[in-house]
Amino acid sequence: MLDPRGEIISLPVEMLAGTPFSTYLVPGALLFTFLGAYPALAAYGLARRPGWALPERINLFHGTHWVWAASLAAGGIPILWIAVQMLMLGYISVLQPFYVAWGMAIIGLTLLPQVQRHYRLEQ
Question: Which residues are CB-neighbours of 24 under 8 A, at least 6 positions away?
């Protein structure tokens, strides 16, 4: 986001050909939000289990703390990001399979029975 032309990290804007973006500003903001801030918030929630009303209201998994659903989504986001990236740009980096594996690991850990039990709400 600080360098929308990609010069600092040596990413030419020509790599964005075939995408709806002409600079790295929007992709950078999306990456920061969904692969930076959101997982950080989920990690905080996993550690502290805050009783925030808004996330609980939009939690699709009734009976579990909202942060469990946030963790599940935090695993799906990098998988979705890489899938869209590969559709737009193709295979461009050895990091792409790493991020897919990372997302799958987060989902796998989130779905462990002991994790589900830990974040189940008392009825």
Answer: 1, 3, 4, 5, 6, 11, 13, 16
